[in-house]
Amino acid sequence: MSKSKFKFLAAVLGLVLITSCVKEYDNPPIDTIPTGSLVTIDSLRSLFADSGAVSFKEDVSFYATVTADEVNGNLYKEVYVQDGTGAIKLNLLNSGGLYRGDQIRVNLNGTIMLEDNDFLIIDSVDVDLNVVKQKTKQEVEPLEVSIAQLHDSLQGYLIKLEDVQFNYQEFGKTYADAIGKQTVNLMLEDCNGIQVIVRNSGYANFADQEIPFGKGDFVAVLGQYRNDLQLFIRDINEVKLDGDRCPGTNVQLFKGFDDESVTSGGWQNLTVSGNVPWGIFSGSNSAAKITNFNNGSNSACESWLISPKVSLENVTAPILNFRNTHRYSGPQLDLLISTDYVSGDPSSATWTELNPIWDTDDSSWSWVDSGDLDLSSYVGQSNVHIAFKYTGSNSDGSTWEVDEILIAE
What we know:
Helix content: under 10%
CATH class of the largest domain: Mainly Beta
Structural class: mainly beta
Oligomer: single chain
Number of helices: 3
Number of domains: 3
Radius of gyration: 32 Å
Largest sheet: 9 strands, mixed
Number of strands: 30
Strand content: 35-45%
């Protein structure tokens, strides 16, 4: 036998031996979740209406698409799903595993259908044991409705509202308390003043963002807590409130102190002399408060509460309004306005005194409306600041509170 033929046969034999030594592993077993009877979300709601809470002990399945997930932190251990007949929320035993656009089959065996404060949910869903993904990235178009059309029959639906805006009393607030991780309710309204709650978790990745000023489109899922319908944002990019506000609600500035912060929203708390800063009166209706009386005596001071910059470039008839009250004898507050103030020492700017209606009864806490102060002479100005100036002496000084400071058209 020639050397070349021997080498060829040896190579073939070696290949056979190597191949025969490779172990053939069995394919891993495929976990299957039974289907059982097929139902729809609408039929589940009808079942609850007839029978109340249901603990599923047999294989019953429905197909649906995930419309809102946990990714942005606004939802935790829960997702919203829809089919062609309705929508419902799934409460998960463990976080994660389901994402917006997942088309899924849910086997209800081992879960419970019940009402949680008037909101129908499927509870105790185990993603591994109850859910089979069919497809991904299957987006559901939101249902276009008005706030007036929101109803408990739309529980769980992905909805889209047009021409809505946050109520002006929410200005200067963030979506939630990102530091304290506290949930916050905000009021969204249409141009007829009809409102709905927007509920945001302090764990949401947009919690520290300041709410937008304008009017536009708002996409969310509809939840419910007892008699209150609530919207949950699934993606902050679907909050597109960047248009002109509703007629008659063109608000340039609002400060309500409900967040119990004097300086939130860009306000400045300055002590020109003495050590008497503005503070907060905390109660059922929080307000800004200042007094120079402490430990049984008065102290001389000059203290300013100055607004952030306000633009009056795109308005025609702006007004300023606020509420005030005071007790005890002492100088009246001063309300001032400037178009050249920037920051720091207020004496660096030119200030003009305004003449609101002040509370004159120093014997009781009686709130007084300032009246609508005409600011039309400042139309076209882009750098308007207003300021409340407090003064006290070593022998006297009133206690003043102001609230609901509004510049609007």
